[in-house]
Design brief:
Length: about 300
Amino acid sequence: MTTITASMVKELRDKTGAGMMDCKAALTESGGDMEVAIDWLRKKGLSKAAKKSDRVAAEGLVAVTASGTEGSVVEVNSETDFVARNEQFQDLVRNIVTLAGAAEGDVAKLLAAQYPGKSISVEDYVKELIATIGENMTVRRAATLKVNEGIVADYVHNKVADGLGKIGVLVALESSGDKAKLADFGRQLAMHIAAASPMALVPEELDTSVIDRERAIYTEQAAATGKPAEIVEKMVEGRLRKEFFQQVVLMQQVYVLDGKSSVEQAVEAAAKEVGAPIKVTGFVRYALGEGIEKKEDDFAAEVAAAAGTK
């Protein structure tokens, strides 16, 4: 008699989305043959028992594309990293990002757009792929940057294929200077953004609630010194400028490529190289799955339950 192992049960569950107990039963009935077990589940209607749209999709890929004065970035999620390595899924993400510019970062417009080479919308094609691959997938977000003159540079970190990876960055630089040198600096700045994860371009663009939270912390710490209220206020505002803003505001961050200049100083130095002033007009940084609450499964407990043990 074939021994049904936990890894076999997990493999079947990943392929079919069926429950642990159903997968164990299918493997038992099929003598451990994976393909026969899949057919057994399909015949009983259990391979689609899990409602895919309810399953958390926090893996997937970020895609970027940039050419000249325009660039786009999208995040498309799947349930597992295994699917992110699937060529069909990679083609999906690669094709979707080509449509993001026309949609101007509006996900609803992007989903309604006609999928390349098909007579159906992006949304309907994603649904078809969900049925084919067997995992929930979502087009989570999209953004586009443009400049009148200059370049939009891009960078992909943890790249799995051209233009696809775990972190995608766009940065828009307005300048009439040398385009090749501007593009080189733009890529370096995009790499800085990937590493330093700024929250805003300038302090004025920071969410006021974020500033208020930091101010409250600094105020409590400063008040503990026993100094007068007016001194406490000055201490707090000083720390916001010198500590917090330098951590989260792009133009005030320490430029990671040299470890000493501010980004603002690096931009000024680059302007001399390209032969014209440079203005950073915006950036986008997407990190795969950020902000998605991931369900933590206790797989060992599930296996124990399936095996009838504690």
